[in-house]
Amino acid sequence: MLATLAVIGLLAFTAPAAAELKDSVVLRWTFIAQRVGVAQYWAYKQSKGNAAVNADLASAFAVHSVLARTNAALAPTLLDGPLYDEVAKSGVSEAVRDASAALGIKIGIDIATASATDAGLEVSYYRPGYPDSLARDNEYVFTPEQIGAPRDFLLYPNYANGTTFVYPVSKIPGLAAPYLKAPFKFGTPDFEAENKVVLEQGGTYAPNRTAYDTDTARFWLGAVSGSGGQGSAGVTGMVQNISIALLPDTFTPEQQAAFFAKLGTAFYDAIIAVWYVKFKAPRWRPITAIQKYYNASWTPLLGTPQHPEYPSAHQGIFGGGWSVLVRELGGKSDFTFTVKSDWPNIPDRTYNNLATAAAEAGNSRVFAGAHWAQANNDGFALGKAVGEYIYDNIDKVIYGKQSALKW
């Protein structure tokens, strides 16, 4: 399943054209697989004071060990070759190589062993509690394109039962409590105001959406497939690329590993919190509300993700990672950077402020027709709270040492 991979595993992405960080073993393996920072960070920490171990090489072995255990079929092709290259580059003796391998492999085994007790790795077959034809106001049902095989299933409901790496599971119900009753209800002035924007800007035909806004909906998915369900994973690669472009080039590999450990953990722990809210109070999608009450033929610009609307997973993940990056940059926002586009017909975009890019990423989900604005804003705030905690507590890894969420 994807839960462990979401933190440490295999979601490859394209390196930015001009990465600012100096090339290192950390970046080389980050390019192979997103969010391997926890394993790499542990390798550097546990190598301190051990003259018999090469920390860089231990880091490479740690990543390889984790990935080979979560998807063994990849080892002969994607993983083994780069590992052999790292050994050759290191120029160390056989004794140091073997000691480094022993440490890295142990880290991989520790992480894989911890994941064995993660309920987020179990199959979870969630369905709405009533027939699709009896859509109730404010409650989630399958959207029209999801009714009938092969799409009559929910994406990753098991995340709602997952255990976190750093943010304590016991804190999630308290963190989530304000959001469980927050979504604007159908018929209220707030709902009508937000829904008017989606009607005007989020449909296949949208008279008030510019060409730039249409591209924005796809651009911030970070996935060429165009499926709304793909964007939650794609945005992590975009945030990582932005981080690589903006972090100081004086960072040592150990500092790089510490940062990417925080970033990857924030992505994953935030998604656990988001999914808890999604399935604790499952909310209908814009297409359901709009087709029922406003326009029976309305369709969103992009495909609707196969899970409840509130809060936005895209923005929850984004908020978790974004908060870590902003903290690492000293809370400053006025940086100029270019974000690479995954879309062949959409050019790369350059921004001169982090806040501008973050706001555009949130708006992209309205332009896609997948979310009302409140889900984006609250998803970002929820993820940000998780990311802030992780930034200050990265050394308190509790994965595998806590119970699953209580429902």
TrEMBL record:
The keyword Cytoplasm does not apply. Keywords: Signal. Residues 1-19 form the signal peptide. Gene3D superfamilies: 1.10.606.20. The keyword Signal applies. InterPro entries: PAP2/HPO_sf, V-haloperoxidase. This is Phosphatidic acid phosphatase type 2/haloperoxidase domain-containing protein. It comes from Chlamydomonas schloesseri.
